[in-house]
Amino acid sequence: MGNHVSVLLDESIEMLGIKPDGIYVDMTLGRGGHSSKILEKLTTGHLYCFDLDEEAIKESRERLEKISSSFTIIHDNFKSAKEDLLNLGVKEVDGIIMDLGVSSPQFDEAERGFSYRYDAPLDMRMDQNQRKSAKTIVNEYDFETLLKVFREYGEDRYSYQIASAIVKERAKKEIATTSELVEIIKRNKPAKELAKKGHPAKQIFQALRIETNDEMKNLEEALDKMPSLLKKGGVYSIITFHSIEDRIVKEKFRLLTKENISRTDPSSLYAESHIDFVSVTKKPIVPSEEEMEANNRAHSAKLRGIKRKE
């Protein structure tokens, strides 16, 4: 089992300003890095955690139980967190955290099909119960949709060539494994591209993971719903790992902290709540040189936060 290190851990926890009697929500439990830190600081407070990955939940539950019993784990997508919390009678919270990085152990478990480093079935589902997998996308999406996914979520310069090649290959036989896909990607990139640092399949695999799990749509939904649960003085902190996520978070936070009713739909969520929030980060917080050296995954991380006015 890979040892998952939470990126920007201290900075994000510090931003939340944990109160011992507060109610906190970890929308991305993962291996429990942030949740452990929050739980250690609570006395009469309570922590609610969300995750879709049953393996991660099992591991984190054991880790958290050693600290305290003041937590509740909910096996659900974070886009439904607000409804789940309201159903539990939680109407307001002191802080919310999201860490949008995929936890390293998911990459390390070859059979989950997230990694281009191991040969495995093309899977990439965070929630093992859903039908759509990376294999479904690669074999069933039409050329235009495949191209759009690769361009938007992978930002790969050779998206057109790769999508064309996939359509040709799958006409002969189903593309079923990660290594089959890696080979197609490699064959459709020029030698100078293959010689560059980093794996040639990285961006296409990222795009497939995002599409398989509807990550961007779910993120937008969570960002639309969750801020309204924050108490006065409550903080929402989010760690992103690539430009697409960061753009979404930056834009939603901008709308919530700017007085621009005229430029948005007055009937929208923002009309009533946007002036309630102030930005905690004028510029995103990025990891220190030491953290980047110690943890390669930290390089692209950015932390942003907003606070409900007191």
How would you sum up this structure, described in words?
- The protein is of the alpha/beta class and 310 residues long.
- It has two domains: 9-105 and 215-308, Rossmann fold, CATH 3.40.50; 128-212, Putative methyltransferase TM0872, insert domain (DNA polymerase, domain 1, Orthogonal Bundle).
- Helix content is 44%, strand content 14%.
- The protein has helices at residues 9-16, 33-41, 54-65, 81-87, 104-108, 134-140, 143-154, 159-172, 178-187, 191-194, 202-212, 215-225, 243-257, 269-273, 289-294, and strands at residues 23-26, 46-51, 71-75, 93-99, 230-240, 277-279, 302-308.
- A seven-stranded mixed sheet has the order 3-2-1-4-5-7-6, sandwiched between helices.
- Helix 7 packs across helix 8 and helix 7 (143-154) packs across helix 11.
- The model is unreliable at 270-274 (pLDDT under 50).
Record the SSE blueprint.
Blueprint: H1 9-16, E1 23-26, H2 33-41, E2 46-51, H3 54-65, E3 71-75, H4 81-87, E4 93-99, H5 104-108, H6 134-140, H7 143-154, H8 159-172, H9 178-187, H10 191-194, H11 202-212, H12 215-225, E5 230-240, H13 243-257, H14 269-273, E6 277-279, H15 289-294, E7 302-308
Parallel strand pairs: 1-2, 1-4, 2-3, 4-5
Antiparallel strand pairs: 5-7, 6-7
Helix pairs in contact: 7-8, 7-11, 12-13
